[in-house]
Amino acid sequence: LSEVGLEKFKILVFDEVKKSVCNTILVLINQERDGETIDRSVIRESVRLFEQMGLGSLDVYINDFEEHFLESTKTYYASKANEWNDSLSTPDYLICAEKAIDSEKARVSAYLNIESEERTLAVVIDTVLKDKEDEIINKENSGCLSLFRNYQIEHLERLYKLYCKVTNGIQPIADLLKKHILECAETKIDERKSRIASGTSKSKKDEDDPTFMNDIITIHDINIKLINDIFNQNTLFQKAIKDAFETFINHDIGGKEKSAAVMSAYCDHLLKGKSSLNDEAEIETFLDKTIVIFSYLSDKDIFAEIYRGQLYKRLLNETTTNTDLEAKMISKLDYANGQSFTAKMVGMLHDMKLS
Fold first, then answer.
1. What is the per-residue pLDDT across 31-79, written as a single tens digit (0 to 9) for each?
2. At what angle do helices 153-163 and 90-111 cross, to 10 degrees?
3. Contact, 15 vs 55, CB < 8 A?
4. Of the candidates 252, 259, 248, which has an alpha carbon nearest to the alpha carbon of residue 207?
5. Using the 8-state DSSP alphabet, how is residue 205 labeled?
């Protein structure tokens, strides 16, 4: 009798009113989205009726309510996305998108079937994030490049968290990180060229430019910290920084000398104690950072040749500050590039020890 009663109720009552009830529920939900207060209990009980009319399945709920709900959700947020994009900066847009996702999750929990959550959030994410990604991340004065330039951690963290939800949403952001790093490097290369052209460099040799190396190390440190702290060591961002550094380190950096010579001269500068660093641990830290930059270098053999020449001068002229530090540096190069790369350097240290 219970089953027959439900079947008759469905045919005689539910099927007659389901369309108007569904439309009314959707109007109320949109009113709530706009900030109005509605009676959630009425919606919850109405939705339960859609569930019960499936007589053991969710087919009626999905076909007669959820499909219309998802369509209405897409229409609503498409309009909102256009409105936000026209009037808000990228950070403010992301805040609105985050609130929208959270509110829809809470809405499903409050009065819809839990099975609707994944599909509802997918619609919201696609509509406000995926469909607008190009416009959001490239927005002038507030897009990704601006966030990177101004190191706006909070907004970058939100950007990453939201676009992790979007299929292939991270790649365009990683591409912009690469572009940002190349822009920073180009600025430092231009400054180096100006120093060489104006003769304001402390050394007459093009390769002896510790300022340039310190600038490059700083750029690397900042962006590695960003990847580790904000982007969860995501491989796409790791590849972006690797590609960026390989691109500019192995091209013209201003002056007659290549990066290999500048890098080796920087190591010579540190090991002779010419830097402002007096503590051995600090010097070793910067040597470690130089090794990281060295890993992006394609002219490693040229670096080795120049480094060997500078090493024997330091050893013979006794201008090195610490032979233990020399040994540690060679060990670092050995680890980075193999024993054959450092065999002659090791031999030099051994000869000095014997002599």
1. 999 999 999 999 999 999 999 998 888 999 999 999 999 999 999 999 9
2. 50
3. no
4. 259
5. S
Name the helix (H) or strand (E) containing 133: helix 133-137
- How many residues does the structure list for the chain? 355
As a whole number, mean pLDDT of residues 209-223 equals: 94
Note whether 172 and 137 are within 8 A (CB): yes
Q: DSSP letter string over 41-107?
A: HHHHHHHHHHHHTTTTSSHHHIIIIIHHHHHHHHHHHHHHHHHHHHHS-HHHHHHHHHHHHHHHHHH
DSSP letter at 220?
Answer: H
Torsion from C-alpha of 35, 39, 41, 45, nearest 10 degrees: -100
Say what angle helices 90-111 and 15-33 make with each other, to 10 degrees.
Answer: 140
Q: How many angstroms separate the CA atoms of 352 and 334, rounded?
A: 19
Which class for 197: exposed (0-12), middle (13-18), buried (19 or more C-beta within 10 A)?
A: exposed
Q: Which long-range contacts (CB under 8 A, 24 or more apart) does 106-110 make?
A: 107/29, 107/32, 110/40, 110/44
What is the rounded distance in angstroms from the CA atom of residue 156 to the CA atom of residue 162? 10
